[in-house]
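Entry 14: structure prediction run for Class I SAM-dependent methyltransferase. Input pasted below.
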Amino acid sequence: MAHEHDEKHVHHHDHTDLDWAVMGPLLETQAELFAPLYERAMAWLAKERTDPGLIVDAGSGPGVVACLFAETFPGARVVAVDGSAPLLERARARAERLGFGDRFGTLTGELPEVLGELEYPADLLWASRSLHHLGDQRAGLAAFGQRLAPGGTLAIMEGGLPSRFLPRDFGIGRPGLEARIDAIEAEWFAQMRADLPGAVTETEDWSALLTSAGLKYTGSRSFLLDLPAPAPDRVRAYVATWLTRVRDVYGDALGAEDRATLDRLVDPQDPAGVHRRADVFVLAAHTVHTAVRPV
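Run finished. Output tokens:
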């Protein structure tokens, strides 16, 4: 269950057709770009969990965030959990490279069942945009909670605001392109949720859902990533990759004018493309919800 959980993203839920050797570097780059947002979230979590013994990243992808946890909590053992063995290989290599290998483990399998293979309960269980891939999110939260030690914290990152990369009117095509993409993605996301095995419709009241899972809701907070224009090359490359995948995945739902605009935006030779224009930025907000297993 590998997820692009580090940014507003074009979701991929049929993992059978993905080449993780290709996706791995892309997911790593995206997570590294969003590292300041994750670091602020971890600083907030550290106020609640000062000395966790075991931290579990449920749906870790290539391990960028899991390694940030290892850095933030130097006394903790960290386990990265994901359905993609190739991505977990990248996570292990990253941990070794950063000097965390002696307290970093991986667990391969599908959530939430694979969490039953943990050797002991987690003091902090982090799930960044992995819960919404489960048909029954309420049951998923209950399963997450059962893998917590008494007094342990569950932190889920779900929701926030759509990211923005360009002004509303950036001079080519019809203004408001990103808002139209948001609307298409929202419809796609709703259909994805409806098509999941065992799908259950839930009101996304996270405090109520966490409480219903037998946990004590402790708070929600949103964290901002603000990379202002003019963007450095690595930010431009990220935006170009994101827009390319929007065009490829949602192209049929976009009008001809918007598709033509996207073609120009991702063209490295076009002066109006994101590789060359001076007004490219990244502005994103992700929300974290926390709860504690009663002692």
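Notes: The longest strand covers residues 148-164. Will compare against the previous run tomorrow.
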